[in-house]
Amino acid sequence: MDKNKKAYGNLLKSIRKYKGISAELLARGMCDKSMINRIESGQRRIGFFSRRRLMSRLGISLALFTEYLQYDEYEVYSKQREIIYAFENEDTQNIESVLIEYEKKVKKDKVGLQFALFIRAVLESSSDLEMSYEYICKCIRMTMPSIKYSKLSEYVLSGEEVKYLSYYLKIRSTIKIDTIDDNICGNLTINGCFEKLLDYIIEQKWDTEPQMQVFPAVLVEYWNYLANCGNDFFTKDENKNQAVLKYLNYALDISKKSGLLFYLPSLLTMGKTLSRGIKQSEYEKYDNVFRKVFEISENDYNKENPWSVFYGGSIYLLGDVLKRRRILFGMTQKEFCEEICDIRTYSRLETGKAKTHDCETIMLLKKARLPEQYFYAQIVADEYSLIKDSMLIKKNINESKYNEAINMLLLLENKIDMSIPINSQFVGNKIALASIGLKEIDKNCYGNLARKYLHLTIDKSIGDLCISKTYFTSVEYNLIYNLARYDELQKKIFNGILAYFTDVSYLEKRHRDRHLDYIVWYFASYLGDHDNKQKSTEISKILLKSTFLKMNREEVTKNIYNILWNKYDGNFAGSTEAENILSVLLDVSEFYEAERDMKFFNQRLKEVIIEPESSEPSE
Q1: How many helices (H) and strands (E) does the chain have?
Q2: Under 8 Å CB-to-CB from 579, ≥6 apart: which residues?
Q3: Which parts of 415-541 are beta strand (E)?
Q4: How many CA atoms, within 13 angstroms, populate the side-chain half-sphere of residue 564?
C-alpha cells in the first residue's frame, strides 16, 4: 500500500473523528461514503483540489500544511493562483484567457470546475445577471446538488461553499425573471436565507483564519441586501436592527481574532449606521457593540485581501524542491537518483516535464532529507490531536508561557516518531526557545543547540549555505531565523537570508511577503539584543533597498512597533532596545516621507528618555 495515500488517509480519518463528523456527512455532494472509506484506508488517492476541499469541510486551515505537487497538479494550481491574483489587482483583461486554460485542465474535477464556474458568475454579474445566475447555480450543484437553506445542517460545508451560497443570494435578490429556480431557497425569503447561512457559520465555530473570514464576507452581502430594501429600513424594523447587531458583534470579534480585516470598513459603516437608527431604549443593550465599533474606528488595520488567505497554503513544485536540495548537498543528478529512478526521468522531473511513481517520490524525498510524504504539517503525525498540540506549543512560546510549552513538548516527544528529523528538529528547537525564555540557557548555548538540530538535515555550516538558492522546511528556516537572532552571525548571513526571501523563484509572493516580515522583525530584534546604534543605521539602509518594504511599509512598521509595544507594555523609558528599533522605524518613515509616522516615532523616541504617558499601540 502506498505510504503517501495511507498518511493522508490516516490524517483525514483522525481529523474527522476528532470533529465528530461521519464519513457520509463529509462525502455528501462530493462522493459516496465508500469513497471516503477507501481514501482513509489508503486504497484511493484523490486529486489536489478534492484533498483540500475535504480538509476545508473539516474546518482545517490549509496554511498548516506543506504540500509537494507533481508538475501536472502544480500547473493547474498555478493557473488558479493567476486568476486569483488578477482579481486581487482588478485585472479582468487577462482573466478570460487564463480561465479557458484552467477549465480545460479541470474539466473532470468537480471541485476545480466549481471554482471556474464561480469566477464566471462574478465576471458576468456586471453585464448579464441571468447568465451570472445560471453559472452560480451550476457552481452550487457541483458539490451541493440538493442543498436547501432551510436544511444546511444536513451538510458539512467548506468556507468556499458557504461563499458560493452567499453569492447565490446576492444574484438571486437582484435578478428579475420569472424562471427562477427556488429549489435552494424553498419557502424562505432572501432575508431568511441569509440569516440561516449566518447562523450556520456561527454553529460551526470555525477557528481558522480562512474560515473566520467567511462570516464578515457573508454579513457584508447581507447588509448590502438590507440597504437596498429602503433608506429608512433600519429605523423602522427594530427586530432586524437587533439581528444585524448580533451578527455585527460576532463579526467584529472574529475579525479582530483572525487579524484578517478586509471587510472591517464595511462592518464599521454598518455599526455607525445602526447606532443612529436604533431606539434609545435599546441602545444600552448593545452599548458594548457600539463601543467596539468606535474603538476600532480610531485605528488603522491591515486589510489583507481575503482571496489570498482563502486559497493559501505552502505548496511547492516537487521537481524544483528536489533540485534545490540536491544542489545544497553538492550532488549530481545521477548521484541523487541512483537506485531510485533512471537519470532521464529524474532530469525531466526537475524541469517539470515528467512525474515519478509514489514509491520513487518517497525515496527521493528521503534522499533530500525531507518528510517522506507529499502532505504534512509542521510535524509529521497521523493524529490530528498531536498537530493541535504542536500549534498550541508554538502559541504558548509566542505568549511567553514557557513552562506550559515545555510540559507539552515532553509529552509530545513520547507520542510522535522522533526518528523523523523534522520532528526532532521541532521538539528540540521549541524546548531550546522555551529554555532561553526561562533564562535556563544563554544565547551561546542556544546557538550550539540550533546548529545541532539543523545538522540533522543540513550538515553544513550556515555560513557556507547559498541561502537564496536553497529550499528549507518551515522548521529549518525557523532554526535559521533564531540563529540570526540569538547567535553571533556575520552581516553577510543577514544579507543572505534577506536575499533568500526576495530572490527564490519557487516561493510565491504571498510566502515571501509573510516570511520577510518575520525577517524584518528579527533584524530589529537583533539590534535591540546587541545595543549597537551603528547596526541600526546599517539595517535601515538594508530595509530601504527592499522592494518588499516599499510595497508593505505600513504593515511592517505596524507589526514591528506592536511587538515592541507589547513587550514593554508601552513603557520605553530607558530601553536601548526600544531606542534602536524606534530609530529604524523613524529612518524608514523619513525615507518614505510618511509624516504621520515620523511624528509618531519621534514622540516615542522622546519617551525612551522621558517617562511616557499611557498610550495605545500605533498602526
Answers
A1: 32, 3
A2: 533, 572, 605, 608
A3: none
A4: 36
Rounded Cα–Cα distance for residues 336 and 327 (Å): 10
Q: What percent of the chain has pLDDT over 90?
A: 32
User: Is a pLDDT exceeding 80 seen at residue 137?
Assistant: yes
Q: Could you report the per-residue pLDDT of 382-402, keeping only the tens digit for each?
A: 889 999 999 899 889 888 899
Mean pLDDT (the chain, rounded): 79
Residue 334 belongs to what H/E stretch? helix 333-337
Tell me how far CA of residue 302 lies from CA of 255, 306, 554, 589, in angstroms: 11, 12, 8, 17
User: Which DSSP string corresponds to 485-513?
Assistant: HHS---HHHHHHHHHHHHH-SSS-HHHHH
Residue with more model confidence, 325 or 517 = 325
**109-128 pLDDT, tens digit each:** 999 999 999 999 999 998 89
Burial class (CB in 10 A: 0-12, 13-18, 19+), 162: buried
Q: Give pLDDT tens digits for 546-562.
A: 555 555 667 667 767 77
The Cα-based distances of 600 to 127, 564, 604, 606 in angstroms read: 47, 14, 6, 10
For 403, half-sphere exposure in the C-beta direction (CA atoms, 13 angstrom radius) is: 0
Q: Does residue 400 come out as left (phi exceeding 0), alpha (psi in the -120 to 50 range) or beta? A: left
What is the C-alpha separation between 283 and 474, in angstroms, rounded? 49
Residue (of 363, 318, 317, 339) closest to 2 by Cα position = 363
Closest CA to 517 of 475, 474, 567, 481: 481
**C-alpha radius of gyration, the chain, whole number:** 26
Q: Are strands 66-69 and 314-317 parallel, antiparallel or unpaired?
A: parallel
Q: How far is residue 254's CA from residue 390's CA, in Å, rounded to a whole number?
A: 23
Q: Which three cell numbers stand for residue 292?
A: 467596539
Q: Listing from the earlier edge strand, what are the strands of the sheet with 66-69?
A: 314-317, 66-69, 375-376
In this structure, how many other beta carbons lie within 10 angstroms of the beta carbon of residue 177? 8
Handedness of CA 610, 611, 613, 617 (dihedral sign): positive
What are 6's three cell numbers? 495511507
Least confident piece of the model among 268-272, 328-332, 347-351, 422-426: 268-272
Residue 322: pLDDT above 90?
A: yes
CB within 8 A of 535, min separation 6: which ones? 526, 527, 580
SS3 617: coil
**What average pLDDT does range 582-603 have in this prediction?**
81
Q: Are 378 and 426 in contact (CB under 8 A)?
A: yes
- Rounded distance between C-alpha atoms, residue 458 and residue 547, angstroms: 30
Give the mean pLDDT of 585-593: 77
